[in-house]
Specification:
Structural class: mainly alpha
Number of strands: 2
Number of helices: 4
Strand content: 5-15%
Radius of gyration: 19 Å
Largest sheet: 2 strands, antiparallel
Helix content: 55-70%
């Protein structure tokens, strides 16, 4: 039976060290998938709609790498999706990242073309 993260299932007959390596690999694949595909809606909502402390626990902030607040406002840095996708490919989950690579490439091309044709606001 495959694991939900798409990794390899540990065989109970394998040595404990091998199972640990597989568990670590599966966890790395799960984290990379979540970072590469994660949504940022809740983090953006924080910028525009202040939340009560008890409501923060319900928000999906998995892809947030850093939050800074200063006199100018709030700055939120997100996990690097491209790095996560590259790591996912290196770990053997490359089939699942091809659509992401294609979408990132298409978006970058659209921004580049918009900037070339006078759309400086796109950059």
């Amino acid at each position: 039976m495959p694991l939900p993260c798409g990794g390899l299932q540990a065989d109970k007959k394998q040595p404990a060290e091998t199972r640990e390596k597989m568990d670590t690999r599966n966890e790395a694949l799960r984290v990379c998938r979540k970072l590469a595909r994660g949504r940022i809606n809740d983090a953006v909502r924080l910028l525009f709609e202040p939340q009560e402390p008890e409501c923060l626990k319900k928000l999906d902030l998995y892809c947030v790498a850093e939050v800074k607040r200063n006199d100018k406002g709030v700055e939120i840095k997100f996990a690097d999706r491209l790095k996560a996708a590259q790591m996912l490919a290196q770990l053997g989950g490359e089939d699942s990242v091809q659509p992401l690579f294609a979408a990132l490439n298409q978006s970058a091309q659209a921004v580049k073309e918009t900037a070339q044709y006078g759309g400086a606001d796109a950059v």
